[in-house]
Amino acid sequence: MVTSIILTRYSAGERNFPQIDLREVELIKVNLSETNLTAADLRQARLGKTNLSHTCLQKADMSEAILWGTDLTKADLQEAILREADLSGAILTQVNLERANLLKAILEGSNLSGAKLCHALMIEVDLRPSSDYRTNLSQADLSDANLSYANLSQALLYQAKLDNARLCCANLSTIEENNICVTDLTEASLQNADLSYANFTGAILKKANLTGADLTGTILKNTDLEGAIMPDGTLYNG
């Protein structure tokens, strides 16, 4: 009933649905782009492959929502709650997730290139590759984000900004032999980041900036640090 009502209103040209209650709603493969869903209740909603690009979802609660392959290009999710949401394969290019809660969210194979994730809570988030795609965080801004215990194995973090981020005990390793999807942090900025006890086995950190980073207990086995700036400001000398 709720599904048909919102789709009818959207088809009639309405785009303003702030604080709407869409708990457990099923809106699969529909177009809701450029919609105002500020503070909407989307807990456990099923939104697979729905077009939510350019949509305002500030402070929306999407806890445990299913967003497989959902298009959230340039959407505004500042302070949104995505706790334990499944965003596998989602398109999140240039999305704004500043101060969003992504605790234990699944982002396998999602595209987060150019995303803003400053101060986001990402403890135990899963950013491993899916069977079809690797997770793309190229040029994403993760400054001050909390990625403690996160799984970023084989993620693409080319030129990502991780200054002051917390990656304590995070997994950024590439364990499988001959795997072409190496965790890639080429030219990434990790200034003053907490990398304590993180696992970078087999990762690429070429020309990365680690100035002031905490490497207490960090595993750097077979890590490529060519041209990287080390915590003390000196160039890596292997």
UniProtKB/TrEMBL annotation:
Taxonomy, superkingdom: Bacteria
Record Gene3D superfamilies: E3 ubiquitin-protein ligase SopA
Pfam name, any one: Pentapeptide
Keywords: Repeat
The keyword Repeat is annotated on this UniProt entry: yes
PANTHER family for the chain: THYLAKOID LUMENAL 17.4 KDA PROTEIN, CHLOROPLASTIC
Record protein name field: Pentapeptide repeat-containing protein
